[in-house]
Amino acid sequence: MGLNARGFGISIPLLIAATIVAILGTWWLSIDKIIANLILVTFGSVLITIGVHYVPVGGAPAAMATATGVGTGTTQLAAGSGLTGLITAAAMSDKPFVVILWNGAIGAALMIAITMLVGNFIYIYGVGVPPCSAKVDKDPITGWDQDPYVTPGTEGHGIPTVSFVSGIFGGLLGGAGGGMVYFSLYKVLKMSPALAGITAMGIFYANSVLASYNIGGTIEGYHDPKFKRVHRAIISSIVFGIVAAIFTYAISYWVM
Amino acid sequence: MVGLAEVGIAATMGALATIAGAFEDAESDVGSQSNPNSQVQLAPQMMNFHRYFNKAISGEPVSYMMYGAIAGTIAWVFMTKFGLPFLAAVAIGVGINAAVHMIFATTAHLGRIASAAEFGHPIYLDVVLSHLGPIAGFGAIATFCIVSLAYIQWSILKHPFPMPLLAALWGVTVGAIGSSTGDVHYGAERLYQHYPFGCGVPVAAHGNITRKAETGIRNSMDSVFFCSKFGNPATGLCFGLIIFFSTWAGLFGPWGGVIAMALVTLAALIISNRIEKKARKEYGTYEDVSVDEICDPI
Q1: In chain B, domain spans
Q2: Which of B275, B276, B295, B296 to mutate to probe the A interface, most A CBs <10 Å?
Q3: What is the pLDDT of residues B46-88, one digit of tens each?
Q4: What residue segments make up the domains of chain A, in order of their start?
Q5: Can you tell me the distance from the alpha carbon of B83 to that of B76, in angstroms, rounded to the nearest whole number?
Q6: Which of A48, A66, A187, A229 is 20–30 Å from B214 (CA)?
């Protein structure tokens, strides 16, 4: 399977599925709370976990231009973008579900896109290196050669186009997942916006950490061989989603 | 339709965010927090003794979430329970947070440097004392801007989240941006300034950080002077653009906002692709350079 087919083939159907779930809108409020919360929180968790696999992060080595990707930790960057999405999603709290979902998705994608762009400014003009990856011979999207541009002794540097596109997909999936979890907590379980926001943040962090363990802290995007491990993270996030759904229901039942 | 007043609010928030981003990165450079800190921590093990301030309270997003939450909560309490105006309340919040920040910075630095004692690394008390002021000062300016941002969003834009939660969430975002953008300038360029410009840091060179200044021995205050010329403003620009565009897009209504943010995201992708192409063309390849040549510059 081609790398682009793998990357686009997983993310786009997931985004379509999330949109269909969101179009059902108020129907989720008409069915049993436990079931609606279970489905939405679990699906949201899966979206977040898969989204984190798409975000190109190089961890500490990337901060020294020793590895490709954004120079920070997986969890931190995913949480930074996802929580920006949560703020843009929550700003639409009184709007339909699909509006909340897409505002969350695109808000997170915007954050990560501008961060990667300014990151590339610093790699190119501050450090003086062209963005390139050591994991693939040619960029799957542009077809540009990678190996000759990699500094000897490093695993690449900067954010090449394929990683950039992958990061945008990561932001979209993560933000959509965050928006879905927020909708479930706020509208289905009738939590206050503050409690729903804090709980959604906790669920976001837990899923980011799960994904971070799965990829060992660094990944370049969907073209990275580590991306093949995504199925293990999906199983973990489904288990986590079920547990989180039960706990959030218990919180809304006893506390509120 | 978007009025002039709404655009003004978005621009004000963008300006506050720009200052927050720039000073957040300056604080992480003068305290050597975040990912490049691994090199400062590694240096004594490679027998490279230094006078850098070496703190890693936690990842930057988490530490700024804490600062935003502390300052935001205290300001909130003084506003709602004691009826103080926002500026007075936020000044108290930021002041108390600065004290907490200095305590964390001191314990983090002393703990980290003390762990290098087995390699014979000394603790320079003058480094501790001289760096605490800028750390607290830069941190306070960044925190003040974050809380102000949250206040505008909560009071004028009527965001459903309470102000302290917004401050905490924007703290995560500014920390994530600071460690993703500006810290690369510090980690890959400033910490390795005795290496030739225009290459990444090979794994073999890790820990071999630049220890000499223009005069005498370098400390972290010299680093912030260097990074304030490019890394810090770039970080500020990044956070400012994110806040500006996400606020500005929200003013177009639910779907208009989605389309506006999507267009900005697409524009970022195109610009990044163009500068990547330009860099490849202008800098060329590394084919004729050996690893030893890059690792042993002196």
Answers
A1: 4-295
A2: B276
A3: 888 999 998 888 888 899 999 999 999 999 999 999 999 999 9
A4: 3-25+44-254
A5: 10
A6: A66
